[in-house]
Amino acid sequence: MRRNPEMIAHSTNKHVAATALLAALSFLVVSCSTPKLEERQVPPPDSIAAPGWAQGMAVYAIDVDRFNNGNRFNDPPGTDRRRKNHSADRPFGGDLFGIRQRIWYLRSLKINAVCLSPVFTGNLDPDYPTSDYLKIDPAFGTEKDLETVVAKCHENDIRVILDINLVYTGTEFFAFRDVLQRQDSSQYRSWFFISDFPVRRQDPPPYRSWRGRGDLPLLNTASPAVRKYLFDAIRKWTAPGIDGWRVLNADALPADFLKALREFIKSIDPDLLLIGEVRDNVAARLQGDEFDAVQDEGFRRAVTGFFARDSLAPSQFDAAIRNRFKQFPSLVPAAAWNTASNPHGKRFLSICEDSIKRALQAAFFQLTTPGTPVIHYGEEMGLAAPGDNRPPISWEPSDWNNTVINHYRNLLALRREYPILRFGAFSKLLADDVSGVYAYELRYKNRRAVCVLNRSDVHVDATLPLPALRWREKMFGNLYQGTKQGLRVRYIPPRSSLLFLQE
Q1: In the chain, which segments carry CATH 2.60.40.1180?
Q2: What are the start and end residues of each CATH 3.20.20.80 domain in the chain?
Q3: Is the CB of residue 383 less than 8 Å from the CB of residue 399?
């Protein structure tokens, strides 16, 4: 709310002391250093499910190999350092030192956390066939490099979350190599689901494997020895100050293992965040005994259908989004991870057939709805590469799409400035299948925000059922006055998004 200049101009002497006191307090507030994330405003206690620091954050997901090559001396054989026309099946050379070099950039985006792809031995392969959970892959750096990245991120008020694959290993995993060597006399035979001996690397294999691939044997997480090994690894990498874990392909893991995993992680530190990557069946994973929140397919499917492919009408999109919310316990949606891109498939901009307007609308929705927006590296630059799901980033600003990056910067800054965009309760205002307009409202602490999306290719008008309040539109800066008939918004540009904040 703005101050009334007339009231200030007519202040009387009896207010001088109070004004001086307020000025002194203002000076103290301004002169203090920027508060750390955990000191910032978080939602009321009755709405917290995940750790408080994870509420309302924005996450930047980094594919370590593709992000930034900071140390060419650890590049593996076959490295292709070209940023343009990079060979999709060859490593780029990105590493932990490269992330450290770009922390200034991550801070400039005003994101709150980074999530790093698996960095353990063997994880250079995009299928993440881990061969040693207790070591950093030399192509990514050293343990010291990871510790430094965590420390530097924390210095810049950025949390660090690690991805981990607990479903399967690679055939170079020490226990599996022992099985290959010793066969049924191996002490590690119970670590896998072996149906027949002799065990050989073959397709189909005589053991259970990921999608029938002989190079990806499934781990028997029911084995006490396997659990001890994996939990020891998690304890080791949590020690440098890791803030959380994202478990990949979590719906392929048994429920009893996930419950034991949660109990173990929370015994280390109750404030550690535990996220599960799942496809469906969200509610079963959010009963308070497995994950704090999940990254599921529901959000991505909905935004792909509505923004990228025009296969969902506004009413269908609204139904899909609200149906997804219903799958979450009432305390969890603020920590649900919302991603537009599939990290294992095409980038969202490529699905949009390089339509910037479509991609920007999806980003607007992602950054103004309940949950944790997950931005995949380079998405905010307009990075797209048909035929390569994991293109490397160019750090030449001339290669960035300024319209896209300014859009992300603006929305991320607005999220930081206005708590309603992080914690607001969501409700539909309008889903017009004729005009293509979709509008929704956020409410938080007696404040209102309204988001309006024109999914059509023509200018449209819309009247929103809202009280006669004054509204400031933040994308273009215009001031609107509501009436008894509602808020009338005229000439909304094609494929555009508007954000109204109550004055």
Answers
A1: 425-502
A2: 45-163+224-420
A3: no
Q: Could you write out the three-class secondary structure of 16-83?
A: HHHHHHHHHHHHHHHHCCCCCHHHCCCCCHHHCCCCHHHCCCCEEEECHHHHCCCCHHHCCCCCCCCC
Mean pLDDT of the chain: 88
| pLDDT digit string, tens, across residues 453-489 | 999 999 999 999 999 999 999 999 999 999 999 999 9
Has residue 385 got a pLDDT over 90? no
Beta-strand pair 337-339/372-376: parallel
Q: Is 9 helix (H, G, I), strand (E, B) or coil?
A: helix
Domain with CATH 3.90.400.10 in the chain: 168-218
Enter the tokens of residue 101: 């070099």
**Distance between CA atoms of residues 258 and 251, nearest Å:** 9
* Strands lying side by side in the sheet with 425-432: 425-432, 437-444, 447-454, 496-502, 470-473, 479-481
Contact 202, 214 (CB under 8 A): yes
Neighbours of 243 (CB within 10 A): 24
d(CA 257, CA 502): 47
Q: Is the dihedral of CA 8, 10, 13, 15 positive or negative?
A: negative
End-to-end CA distance of the chain: 5
- Structural contact between residues 91 and 76, judged by C-beta atoms closer than 8 angstroms: yes
Q: Which of 417, 383, 393 is nearest to 499 (CA)?
A: 417
Helices 224-238 and 255-268, packing angle to 10 deg: 40
DSSP secondary structure string for all residues of 158-225: -EEEEEE--SB--TTSHHHHHHHHHGGG-TTGGGB-B-SSS--S-SS-SB-BGGG-TTSBBB-TTSHH
Residue (of 192, 244, 253) closest to 218 by Cα position? 192
Calpha distance 70→103 (Å, rounded) = 12
Could you name the CATH architecture of 425-502?
Answer: Sandwich (2.60)
The CATH topology of domain 45-163+224-420 is TIM Barrel (3.20.20)
Dihedral class, residue 495 (left if φ above 0, else alpha if ψ from -120 to 50, else beta): left
Determine the length of the chain. Answer: 503
Q: Give the lowest-confidence range in 67-71, 182-186, 325-329.
A: 325-329
Nearest 10 degrees: CA dihedral of 425, 429, 433, 438? -60
CA–CA separation, 139 and 95 (whole Å) = 7
User: Which one is predicted more confidently, 310 or 347?
Assistant: 310
CA 496: distance to chain centroid? 23
Q: State whether CATH 3.90.400.10 applies to domain 168-218.
A: yes
Average pLDDT on 372-379 reads 95
Alpha carbons within 13 angstroms on the beta-carbon side of residue 397 total: 5
